[in-house]
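Data card: per-record layout.
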Amino acid sequence: MDIVTAFLNGVLEEETYMEQPEGYNDGSGRVWKLKKALYGLKQAPRQWYIKLREVLEAIGFTPSTADQSLFMLGEGEQRSFMVVYVDDILIFSPSSDL
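The structure for this 98-residue chain is written out next.
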């Protein structure tokens, strides 16, 4: 599945400012302080991953020690796997309830 607007969900850890976008400039010369990530910011993918990992861990998933893009839930034959690639997610589960 594709997570639409995924990078807009990352919370910035450092202060980041931007000029007013083209077509919106009010002539004041002001800059804006961003509260959340935007597409095009170099830190946006990382902040998205941090937010996603927090949510997945809160609902019981654990990240693999071998690959940080692999998350697991459950044990034995009931174990489910989630693979994250940028803003795409694949879920492998023996149950359709996940």
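Known properties of this structure: The chain has a mean pLDDT of 90. DSSP finds one helix and six strands in the chain.

See the next section for split statistics.
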